[in-house]
Amino acid sequence: MSENKSRTGTTRRSFLQGAAAVGVGAVSASAAKAQAADPLITEVQPWAQGFGDGVDETPYGLPIQYEGDVIRRNVEWLTADTVSSINFTPIHALDGTITPQGCAFERHHSGAIELKKEDYRLMVNGLVDTPLVFSYADLERFPRENHVYFCECAANSGMEWAGAQLNGAQFTHGMIHNMEYTGVPLRTLLEEAGFDTSGDVSGKWVYVEGADASSNGRSIPMEKALDDVLVAFKANGEALRKEHGYPVRLVVPGWEGNMWVKWIRRIEVLDSPVESREETSKYTDTLEDGTSRKWTWAMDAKSVVTSPSPQSPITHGKGPLVITGLAWSGRGAITRVDVSRDGGKSWETARLGKPGEKMALTRFYLDVDWDGSEMMLQSRAIDDTGYIQPTKTQLREVRGLNSIYHNNSIQTWLVRSNGEAENVEVS
Amino acid sequence: GSALAEKYGLGRPALPAEIAAWDQDILPDGTGLPDGSGDAIVGEEIFATQCAACHGDFAEGIGNWPKLAGGADTLDREDPLKTVGSYWPHLSTAFDYIRRSMPYGNAGTLSDEDTYAILAYILYSNDLIEDDFVLSKDTFFDVEMPNANGFIIDDRAETEYSRWSSGDPCMKDCKEDVKVTMRAMVLDVTPKEEGASEE
């Protein structure tokens, strides 16, 4: 990763220096309004004269060096070490909905393991007619499906429960990625092992665990297992990245990321949940009275403005401004996103980049004419169940401050007249 | 669904030894618990060599590493301390997790006897058993987990969804006044970005 370290990123500080150089709020260097002829046009540039790279230069490419700030970032103080830890997708710099795998967030409990296809085994056991072992090659011979889904860590925005803490959409909302998966329905594998689908599935569970030391075992009710869970081996067209579960992971649409077991090695059918560490000690949500919710699987409707945002300030002065962000719901498709520029006093309905898809990221845009005045930017998602994304105050009224997980509240960015943005809470 | 779902004839039967090697989970009712036993006196020695470097001599945790003991009656406080003693509902989970995934960085190396002894020491550190209590599958349920009844099944459908799914949201004049009440920049805990020069 020394390559990443050598890539220099833009910083808030360097942005401010740059903004000062052109005069904040003034007309920025724009070719259309230039006084003198632009030498980038009038003088022959090296790239218009000589050669670029040959086709043998980059068998598998990385982004151009000028995009060096579009990288995963770690927050050291969040966890005891980097092996059972989290990093963050640079959502402030992305557009559309598909997350490039190379900067899609990671969450491991005992590190990203290296497991080659030849060494891969998947066991299906428990309440099945014939416990089976599959090789990787076996999995590729079952009929496949393709689906786009978001994977959001249950703890996404968790640091923000008590107040505004981290200054950037990447840090407050970046424990998420959205990919097109190719895989085999879990149902197919259960049926291959002889799970009796004509029997009563209610009360039945599957317990899934990974090949890594942490195992990350989780219990999933059979209704969900038979509905839309995928055993996936491709993401965004290619094999899963090592850090995302190569060669095989579970995809659990709409449900908290912890259940998307990576390097999945075993699927067990049981008539009760295991109540493993990751569904008792962790991924349970403590309420104000000290009781805790368990099995809070679905990720509720949520949204965030990704630009402008603290890491993506306005650098062009007044005039046309694209306000954009992401919305998603684990309970269905996004039907509408509203944006407020005055901290929730008034709202305008944004435009969706394309119609919302079930349990997938949806891009929204609000194209405005910015007069240079301060804004308190918010977004509010609505899904096809009619659920309206709540404020943090509303969530706290029900849950208190100690839930850790499932913070889907409305985010506010204070955008100053110089274009700089800040993570705030408002009354 | 059909009981005669199409089969593809892929995979091969799992052998008993293979299932035994990988299917190690232990259920809240004790299903899966192995033979063997251990007490806190033996457990303290193993804990000192295998666990204490991160979790502390008394399971109290060092630095940012998890605290395994303490925190009784803190769950409704401002900053609850969630440990095996104060929070975990089932003892089965602790046995399962320790034997499968600990010690961190050297998982799966503890014997069943070691696991019983370490777990006994953690329970003793939480004042849940006496130091001469011998933990085994026969005595497993003599240990009362204080927060066993502290969990409810996800009730968002009842407590939240109807509140926030009621018709059209407010679009105009939704509040009289808006004030900034908290600022992340005051805390200043966000990492400086790559390439930023420290001043």
From TrEMBL, chain A:
UniProt KW keywords: Metal-binding, Molybdenum, Oxidoreductase, Signal
Required cofactor(s): Mo-molybdopterin
UniProt entry tagged with the keyword Metal-binding: yes
Keyword Metal-binding (UniProt): yes
Coiled-coil portions: none
Database matches in InterPro entries: Ig_E-set, MoCF_OxRdtse_dimer, Mopterin_OxRdtase_euk, OxRdtase_Mopterin-bd_dom, OxRdtase_Mopterin-bd_sf, Sulfite_DH_SoxC, TAT_signal, TAT_signal_bac_arc
Signal peptide: 1-36
Molecular functions per Gene Ontology: heme binding; molybdenum ion binding; molybdopterin cofactor binding; sulfite oxidase activity
Oxidoreductase molybdopterin-binding domain mapped to chain residues: 114-275
Gene Ontology biological-process entries: sulfur compound metabolic process
Record PROSITE patterns: TAT
Protein name, as recorded: Sulfite dehydrogenase
Gene: soxC
